[in-house]
Amino acid sequence: MNPLPRDSAVNKSLSKKPKSPPSGVPVFKPWKPAQPAKLQPFKPAQPAKIVMQKAK
């Protein structure tokens, strides 16, 4: 039911912009990898050491 209503919005946007259909994919891709990419190497790197040291 989610992809149905989203398709409608994408179709309408697609009419105005040729890069609207992938809007859902590129929007989530740049956002997910953008945050997790920085949080993954940074968070696990620092918190991982701090948690292990504090836990021990």
UniProtKB/TrEMBL annotation:
Ranges for region Disordered: 1-56
Entry protein name: Uncharacterized protein
